[in-house]
Amino acid sequence: MMRAPVPLRKPSGEVDGRTLRTTRTRRLVVEALLDLLEAGEPQPTAQQVSDRCGVSMRSIFRLFEDVEAMHAAAVAAQIDRVGHLLVPLDRTGSLATRVKALVDSRAKLFETISPVRRMAVRIASTSPTIRADLAVANGFLRAQVVELFDAELRALPSAQRRDVVDVLDVASSWETWERLRSAQGITDRRARRLVAGLLSCTLAGGPDAGRSS
Questions:
Q1: For 9-38, how does the pLDDT look when each residue is reduced to its tens digit (9 = 90+)?
Q2: pLDDT at site 87
């Protein structure tokens, strides 16, 4: 009696089910890592992530090649989480209105992302993926500044314009916000006022603002 041939592929339903389970488990692991960071744990271990999400260490390292890959997935997920905060800002208002809009937008964004951003910055030097993600995010924020203050920047000579953009980019960056809020312990309200002052002073041609050497 001849045996029925052994199928070379598993039924599609079984494959799809396994793929869905893998995707769901990866999401549980990544969300656990993000939750730990946001709860104030600066360097969650794989064991802490495992305990948080109920996925075994063995399963975690079947899903992720190493801890760096797990961190990179968390950074990518964080970008998706905060996408609604990266909205275009109105370019038609007065300078003061636009400065306030930018500061309010950045404050809300930076207060949301800081726990994960600290982790990303800490390990970026050893993770090309995270380093690239940070570069893309920084590029977006810089481009937003250029677009928002296009009228003021176009009025400047090209060499001076480049310098002014650099100053505006730094003044409105996460690194500046982190210095004010964490290193110097400044309140959210005062940090907003200081950043707005830096931006306004630069755009108004404050002391040496944008001066080319």
A1: 555 555 577 788 899 999 999 999 999 999
A2: 85
Mean pLDDT across the stretch 147-176? 96
Average confidence (pLDDT) over 43-71: 94
| CB hemisphere CA count around 130 (13 angstroms) | 22
Q: Do residues 96 and 132 both lie within one domain? A: yes
Nearest to 171 by CA among 185, 187, 192: 192
Q: Which residue has the tokens 């802490």?
A: 48
Q: Are 154 and 77 in contact (CB under 8 A)?
A: no
Domain of residue 60 covers 14-64
- Burial of 62-79, coded b for 16+ CB within 10 Å and e otherwise, reads ebbeebeebbbbbbebbb
Within-domain flag for 96: yes
116 domain residue, yes or no: yes
| Residue 19, in any domain of the structure | yes
Instruction: Kindly state the tokens that stand for 40.
Output: 């104030």
